[in-house]
Amino acid sequence: MKLATLKDGSRDGQLLVVSRDLKTACIADGMAPTLQRALDDWNFMAPQLDELYARLNGGRAANSFDFDASKCMAPLPRAFQWADGSSYVNHVELVRKARSADMPDSFWHDPLMYQGGSDDFIGPQDDIVMASEEWGIDFESEIAVITGDVPMGVKVQNAAEHIRLLMLVNDVSLRNLIPAELAKGFGFFQSKPASSFSPVAVTPDELGDAWKEGKVHLPLRSSLNNMLVGQPNAGVDMVFSFPQLITHLCKTRNARAGTIVGSGTVSNKDAAKGYSCIAEKRALEMIAVGEPVTPYMKFGDSIKIEMLDKNGKSIFGAIEQSVVEQHG
Amino acid sequence: MKLATLKDGSRDGQLLVVSRDLKTACIADGMAPTLQRALDDWNFMAPQLDELYARLNGGRAANSFDFDASKCMAPLPRAFQWADGSSYVNHVELVRKARSADMPDSFWHDPLMYQGGSDDFIGPQDDIVMASEEWGIDFESEIAVITGDVPMGVKVQNAAEHIRLLMLVNDVSLRNLIPAELAKGFGFFQSKPASSFSPVAVTPDELGDAWKEGKVHLPLRSSLNNMLVGQPNAGVDMVFSFPQLITHLCKTRNARAGTIVGSGTVSNKDAAKGYSCIAEKRALEMIAVGEPVTPYMKFGDSIKIEMLDKNGKSIFGAIEQSVVEQHG
Predict the structure, then answer these.
(1) pLDDT higher than 80, residue B65
(2) A103-123: string of b/e by CB count within 10 Å (b at 16+)?
(3) What distance in Å separates the CA atoms of residue B178 and residue B135, rounded to the nearest whole number?
(4) Are residues B139 and B253 located together in one domain of the fold?
(5) Are strands B173-174 and B211-212 parallel, antiparallel or unpaired?
(6) Which residues in chain B have Cβ-Cβ distances shorter than 8 Å to A119?
């Protein structure tokens, strides 16, 4: 099934069930008011929501209306956890190569993961508001899963069963703040402002056979200023599957329902597939011609992130955002 | 006023108003069911809760009962943000000196802060459950504030007004996992398991004149296995005040209601004040005798963290935890 969150002026919005073709929606009235509440009691809620989803797809749901992604918040407008991996190690290797830094061999078998801020996500079509272009504003196109409760020490073979939903992410990054911040040794902080998510979160079964081995085997499309710049296949070159990332996350602690785990910037070794963040394009330029050419995002620039199924239909709806200057 | 969260089997528990002397409590019935809900609508809720607090202190509250910290969850059992600073730069300098690493001068004017996991906090008297002693289990005694909504780019002089509540924290750390994790460059992750918090969160006015310039001017007492090992004054050698930490947090993003901001391990330059984490004690031993002597915590060890007012009364109640081996 497909779920979304309607802007209603409240902090957590209103849970919507959305039709498979993303054309209609209805409020999950009398079931769960918010997505977090549904996740908190998933085994009880999911069958009811799924039944409503079937009625909606069959044109038999009461009080359905046209689905409008611009009226959506992030599926989880605020979450209790956002942990972002870096599974496409090719991307990490490229970025490091561009600055002549070797990559430790351990990066191929021990996942990189950072804890992100999760209190204030932005909606799929909300502006990316920033005070300064000098910060090096970049997008990062990723896939994320939302989990149920996962116990500390979970084994890889048991981790997949805790995956409830999948989404797309724009993990906005401030490239020019990263070097100084990482040099301090405590990881990303100011360099990772609020992330945005696709209008719709979907259960794994919606992906059909594109969901296997804990990976999504479809191209992730990124368009910068309306030009397609990347379409790497998210199932290719993903060194750590989502179950592996969840296992990494839970080595020393539980993860509770509503935890979001990101894949990291999707990247294929085949450079013809383009890029899912400007930093990677700049790394390739650095390696090829000795200096980066493509600028980071400026005020007014736009980014669209989307994933289509085998029939060309959008699965999650599109993230479509503009970068806007903060005033006041 | 003083607020706590009662274990009731639910994920967020039941909001309690607790008397100033920590002897009685009552359920904030008909007001806010949970602390997060109170924080979400603080201007509306706080006066009502404060009125109940006055009645409770005067022995005039209906349905009050004996307050029992062992039945408490963390005041926010799960939070949308936990951002921990490192304001006692003395502590950072000592730990680095012990491993013969210079500290960049920037650490004195640019706060260190990391994003912590916030989805699964442990209660003030809950066990610290860990799979292995080999991870180097340590406590870290800290102070934290809970904020309301804070806008991106907030100025230091405006940050204090967003502080709603204060708590004590045990920021449990796994010392032997830290070096390899920090070497990866993405900051703490597995080395920072679930944190625990004091039974009670208090509004700043409860601290009287001990709350000034965005710092708490009282000793923070840590007892390891029932022996007092530290009582540094949290108002001394705190290089970055809470308003400064909040400003750092909000440089590139908003912080939303219920954000928890930590002070970092409390530490005084005066070594006679003892220590608020074993790592600091070991650093002092390393500097003095060339090797660390004090071991990290073993299964069965206990830690108590408390702050007393000028009259010797506990302000927040005590964090009192034992380290326990995970089974299964």
Answers:
(1) yes
(2) eeeebeeebbbbbbbbbbbbb
(3) 9
(4) yes
(5) unpaired
(6) 80-81, 254-256, 258-259
Q: Longest C-alpha distance within chain A, in Å?
A: 60
**A147-180 pLDDT, tens per residue?**
999 999 999 999 999 999 999 999 999 999 999 9
B155 and B35 share a domain? no
Q: How far apart are CA A47 and CA A62, in angstroms?
A: 18
CA–CA gap between residue B98 and residue B277 (Å, rounded) = 15
Say what the pLDDT of residue B224 is. 98
Q: Please state the pTM of the whole predicted model.
A: 0.98
User: If we measure between CA atoms, which residue out of A11, A60, A73, A12 comes closest to residue A40?
Assistant: A12
Pair of tokens at residue B219: 């000793």
Taking CB atoms and an 8 Å cut-off, how many pairs form between chains A and B? 139
For residue B285, give the 3-state DSSP assignment. Answer: helix
ipTM of the complex: 0.97
CB pair distance less than 8 Å for A248 and B190: yes
Owning domain of residue B10 = 2-71
**Cβ A167 vs Cβ A198: under 8 Å:** yes
Q: Which of A242, A280, A2, A208 is nearest to A113 (CA)?
A: A242
- How close does chain A come to B119, measured CA to CA in Å? 5
Q: What's the structural domain count of chain B?
A: 2
Identify the closest residue of chain A to B113 by CA–CA distance. Answer: A186
CA atoms within 13 A on the CB side of A87: 29
Q: Are residues A134 and A90 in contact, defined by beta-carbon separation less than 8 angstroms?
A: no
Distance from CA of B315 to the nearest CA of A (A): 28
Minimal Cβ distance to B252: which of A190, A253, A255: A190
Residue A76 lies in a domain: no
Q: Is A161 on the interface with B (CB under 8 A)?
A: no
Residue ranges of B 95-114 with Cβ closer than 8 A to chain A: 104, 106-107, 110, 112-114
B241 assigned to some structural domain:
yes
| Residues B214 and B246 both lie in one domain | yes
Sign of CA dihedral A22, A28, A34, A40: negative
- Looking at the fold, whether B195 and B242 belong to one and the same domain comes out as yes
CA distance B147 to chain A (A): 12
List the beta bridge partners of residue B319: B305
Residues of B whose CB is below 8 A from A83? 117, 189
Sequence-distant (6+) residues with CB within 8 A of B324 are: B127, B128, B129, B130, B299, B300
Residues B225-255 pLDDT 10s: 999 999 999 999 999 999 999 999 999 999 9
Low-confidence ranges of chain A (pLDDT < 50): none
Structure tokens at B114: 């990391």
Residue B14 within a domain: yes
> Beta strands B173-174 and A201-202: pairing type?
unpaired
What are the residues facing A170 on neighbouring strands?
Answer: A141, A196
Give the torsion sign (CA, A154, A155, A157, A160): positive
* Pairwise CB contact (< 8 Å): B115 & A188: yes
Instruction: With beta carbons less than 8 A apart as the criterion, state whether B326 and A152 touch.
Output: yes
